[in-house]
Amino acid sequence: TLKHDLAAKLLSTCDEYGQVGSKLSDEQRSIIDDIAASLGKYSSPSPAKIDLKGKHELIYSASPSASSGALGPLTGKVTQSFLDETMFINRVEFFGGVAKIELYAERKVLDDNKIRVKFKETVMSVFGKEVKRFEAKGSGIWDYVFAGSITQPSGEKLFLRVMNTPSTFVIVQRE
Q: Three-state SS for 74?
């Protein structure tokens, strides 16, 4: 179907360009944004109210902040782990998890398409040992473009989320 084809195109384009959108050209970011926007009409209704559980992987972020996984010249693996209806952890792992930054956050559904996120605490660890913990400040809004289950050409089933924060984020959960 067109939904699955567009989702596959979005994921393969993100894979080709890389997860850190701030390192891409304006044209490359625009291509990703256009594909993402075209998926919007195929989204599940009330995407912000979908129950999020388990671990989700960042595929792409246009954000210039560390939430894209970029820390100087390094790019880490970014995941989100949902602990319950409100709490989750944004986690960036470097060198296969040797170094880890975890941002604890709280989310609140505002309406069918938007979730407010408030950052609470940051924990940094090396070799599994906590080296620093401090209060995290800031908040943002997840404005959903698309959320829903898709099937990749390989047959792999994924739960795909595309959001504007206002930067574009593409996140998957493997089913």
A: strand
pLDDT of 152 higher than 80: yes
Lookup: tokens for 22:
């701030």
Q: How far, in whole angstroms, is CA 35 from its chain's centroid? A: 16
Would you say residue 96 has pLDDT above 80? Answer: yes
Cα distances (angstroms) measured from residue 31 to each of 2, 58, 171:
17, 18, 17
Nearest to 18 by CA among 56, 65, 69: 69
pLDDT above 90: percentage of residues in the chain: 93
Give pTM, 2 decimals. 0.95
Mean pLDDT, the chain, whole residue set = 95
Q: How far is CA 72 from CA 20, 28, 76, 93, in A?
A: 12, 21, 11, 14
Q: Span 4-20, mean pLDDT?
A: 96
Distance CA 38, CA 49 (A): 21
Dihedral (Cα; 90, 18, 170, 56), 10-degree rounding: -40
Q: Taking every pair of C-alpha atoms in the chain, what is the biggest distance, in angstroms?
A: 48
